[in-house]
User: Which sequence fits this backbone?
C-alpha cells in the first residue's frame, strides 16, 4: 500500500512540469514561431485566412492574460502556416495534373 | 563475357534511342502554346455540355440549368444592373476637371472595345486590364483612382461592356516571350490549389460547373469573364472582375491578393484568351 502510494506520488510529480500553466515567455516563443511561418507563407503569396485569425486569437488571449489559450492558438497558427507553405511548394508542380490538355 | 557486353551496349543504345524519342514530347508538353490551350479548353466544355449552345456559356450558371435560365430571362426584363449601367453612362460622358473625358483615353472613344481587354502592353511588359486602364486614365487627367472592387468602377465597366455586347472576345498574345510568360502565369494561377479548402479556380469552374456548392450553381470557367461586371444578389450590388477574384480567394480561405496584382491580371488574361470567339454579355446578373 505504502509502495503504491509513493509510486503514485512519484508519477504525479513527474507529470507536474508538463501540466504547468503557460507563461508570457511561452506565448512569445510560440507566437514568434507562428509569425515567422506566416511571413514565409506570405512571401510565397499563399497565406490562409485561418492563419491570420489564429494569430489574432493568440494575441487577444495573451492581452487578456490567458497564456494557455494564447499558446494553443499560436501553435495552431504555426501549424496552419506550415500547411500553407507545404501546399505552395507541392503545387509548384502539382497544378499541372489539373490542366485541361 | 562478350555476350554480356553486347547485351549491355544494346540496352544502353535502346535506352538512348528511347530517351531521344521521348525528349521532344516532354519539351513540347512544357512549351507555352496558347492556341492549343484555348482549343483544348473550349473543347472540354463543349464536350462536357453538348446541349449548351457555345455562345450560351457566357451566361454562367444560367447556361447550365433550364429553370435558372427561365428565371434569368425574366430577370433581364428589369435587370438589377440597370442603375449601375445608367450611372456608368453618365460618368463616362462627364468631363474631368481638365475638360477631357474617358473617351480621350481609349481607342474608338471607348465604345465597343471591351472584347479587346485585357491586352498585353509590349512597352510595359505587362497585362493591362480595362479596370487598370480606366484608373490610369483618371490619374493621367488629375483625378483620384477609384477602388477596383466598388461601385464606380463596376458602373464604368458595365457601360463599356454594354456597348460591346455580342462582340466576340478578341484577346491577342503578341509575339513576345513576356506575353507568353504572362499567359502561362495566369494558367498556373488558375489551376493552383490554395487556401485551407485546398481549392483551385479549376476545382469549382472546371471540375464542377453545373453542380451546387451550398445554394449556388457553379459557373463554367469558359466565358466566365465575358459577363463582367456582374450584379450579384449575394453582394446586393455590383462587382468587378477584381472583386470576383478577391471573393473567390476568400471563399477558399486564402488571403486574397491586392486587386490588379500581377497574378490577377495574368489569370484574367488567360481566362479571357481561352474564351476568344465567345460574345461579350456584360454587364451580367448572378444569384
Assistant:
Amino acid at each position: 500500500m505504502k509502495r503504491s502510494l509513493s509510486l503514485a506520488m512519484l508519477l504525479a510529480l513527474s507529470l507536474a512540469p508538463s501540466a504547468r500553466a503557460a507563461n508570457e515567455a511561452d506565448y512569445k516563443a510560440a507566437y514568434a514561431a507562428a509569425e515567422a511561418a506566416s511571413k514565409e507563407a506570405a512571401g510565397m503569396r499563399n497565406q490562409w485566412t485561418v492563419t491570420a485569425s489564429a494569430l489574432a486569437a493568440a494575441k487577444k488571449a495573451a492581452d487578456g492574460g490567458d497564456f494557455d489559450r494564447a499558446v494553443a492558438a499560436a501553435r495552431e497558427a504555426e501549424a496552419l502556416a506550415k500547411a500553407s507553405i507545404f501546399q505552395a511548394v507541392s503545387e509548384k508542380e502539382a497544378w499541372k495534373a489539373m490542366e485541361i490538355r | 563475357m562478350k555476350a554480356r557486353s553486347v547485351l549491355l551496349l544494346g540496352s544502353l543504345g535502346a535506352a538512348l534511342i528511347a530517351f531521344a524519342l521521348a525528349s521532344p514530347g516532354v519539351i513540347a508538353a512544357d512549351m507555352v502554346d496558347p492556341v492549343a490551350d484555348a482549343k483544348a479548353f473550349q473543347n472540354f466544355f463543349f464536350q462536357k455540355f453538348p446541349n449548351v449552345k457555345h455562345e450560351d456559356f457566357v451566361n454562367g450558371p444560367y447556361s447550365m440549368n433550364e429553370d435558372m435560365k427561365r428565371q434569368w430571362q425574366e430577370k433581364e426584363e428589369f435587370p438589377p444592373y440597370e442603375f449601375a449601367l445608367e450611372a456608368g453612362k453618365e460618368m463616362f460622358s462627364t468631363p474631368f476637371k481638365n475638360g477631357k473625358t474617358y473617351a480621350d483615353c481609349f481607342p474608338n472613344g471607348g465604345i465597343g472595345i471591351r472584347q479587346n481587354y485585357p491586352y498585353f502592353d509590349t512597352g510595359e511588359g505587362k497585362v493591362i486590364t480595362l479596370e487598370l486602364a480606366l484608373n490610369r486614365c483618371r490619374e493621367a487627367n488629375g483625378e483620384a483612382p477609384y477602388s477596383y472592387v466598388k461601385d464606380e468602377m463596376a458602373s464604368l465597366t458595365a457601360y463599356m461592356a454594354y456597348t460591346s455586347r455580342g462582340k466576340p472576345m478578341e484577346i491577342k498574345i503578341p509575339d513576345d516571350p513576356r506575353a507568353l510568360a504572362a499567359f502561362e502565369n495566369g494558367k498556373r494561377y488558375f489551376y493552383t490549389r490554395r487556401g485551407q479548402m485546398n481549392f483551385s479556380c479549376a476545382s469549382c469552374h472546371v471540375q464542377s460547373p453545373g453542380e451546387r456548392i451550398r445554394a449556388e450553381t457553379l459557373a463554367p470557367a469558359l466565358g466566365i469573364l465575358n459577363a463582367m461586371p456582374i450584379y450579384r444578389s449575394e453582394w446586393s450590388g455590383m462587382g468587378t472582375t477584381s472583386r470576383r477574384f478577391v471573393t473567390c480567394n476568400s471563399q477558399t480561405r486564402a488571403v486574397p491578393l491586392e486587386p490588379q496584382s500581377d497574378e490577377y491580371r495574368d489569370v484574367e488574361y488567360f481566362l479571357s484568351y481561352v474564351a476568344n470567339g465567345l460574345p461579350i454579355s456584360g454587364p451580367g446578373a448572378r444569384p
